[in-house]
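Sequence design from tokenized structure. All designs in this work follow the same two-part layout: the structure record, then the generated sequence. An example of the structure record is given first.
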């Protein structure tokens, strides 16, 4: 039973992470990267990867997992009629382009700057979730606005390796879309963002694989293989919880967690 012991000591944590990411993806419309990145980074550093390489790997691996998690979340939200498809078709093209371009930049950035950017973004996202401010604008956006906003969402999401929900949900809420439909629509937008980012990260795959075990380019394969089935399985549970649990309270609990994550990341770069 040595193999079983090795599995639980080294890989079972990825299964648990998949459960957490799946539930949060369905519940809050986020891809899960905002949780995955710091956890994956810590695990990869503990496994002996250099901190700089580990953070880029965490970003790439997180995006690859979001590709699959978002599919499960999309199906569940579509079943519950939580997706505003006209917004999806209008936002997807520019979000895809923004993610693709931003990832090509992120690959060549120093991990220290990416870490601090991620920590700053996480902190402000946490404040936004905690305050849970109500929208003050209720207008239908024109094509120029929605294109520019989608480009920004795709770009920022790729830099911090998230599915875009942290940006998409509040934006759609400001445009008179209900919270449930904003979450569902955000889940759809997360797929092209994650797909574009993953494709970009894989461009240097063969060279990277020759130097690191259990990897394909910047992807850490055990995490992808073990995380994705559990995240896909539990995403519908998160969608179901949107109808039963007080989302406002859950957002604030999640916000406190994110603040802790951001402060820990900043401390790791300053210490």
């Amino acid at each position: 039973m040595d193999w079983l012991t090795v599995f639980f000591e080294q890989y079972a944590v990825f299964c648990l992470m998949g459960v957490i990411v799946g539930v949060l993806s369905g519940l809050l419309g986020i891809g899960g990267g905002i949780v995955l990145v710091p956890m994956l980074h810590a695990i990869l550093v503990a496994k002996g990867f250099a901190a700089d390489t580990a953070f880029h790997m965490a970003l790439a691996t997180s995006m690859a997992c979001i590709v699959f998690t978002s599919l499960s979340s999309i199906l569940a939200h579509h079943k519950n009629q939580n997706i505003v498809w006209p917004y999806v078709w209008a936002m997807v093209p520019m979000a895809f382009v923004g993610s693709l371009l931003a990832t090509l930049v992120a690959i060549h950035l120093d991990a220290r700057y990416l870490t601090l950017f991620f920590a700053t973004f996480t902190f402000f996202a946490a404040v936004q979730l905690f305050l849970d401010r109500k929208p003050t604008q209720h207008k239908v956006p024109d094509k120029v606005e929605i294109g520019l906003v989608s480009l920004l969402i795709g770009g920022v999401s790729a830099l911090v390796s998230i599915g875009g929900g942290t940006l998409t949900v509040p934006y759609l809420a400001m445009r008179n879309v209900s919270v449930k439909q904003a979450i569902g629509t955000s889940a759809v937008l997360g797929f092209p963002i994650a797909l574009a980012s993953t494709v970009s990260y894989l461009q240097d795959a063969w060279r990277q694989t020759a130097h690191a075990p259990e990897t394909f380019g910047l992807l850490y394969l055990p995490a992808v293989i073990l995380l994705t089935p559990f995240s896909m399985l539990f995403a519908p549970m998160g969608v179901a919880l949107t109808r039963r649990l007080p989302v406002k309270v859950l957002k604030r609990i999640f916000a406190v967690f994110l603040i802790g994550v951001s402060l820990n990341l900043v401390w790791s770069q300053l210490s």
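The chain has a mean pLDDT of 79. We note this feature because it recurs in several other targets discussed in the main text.
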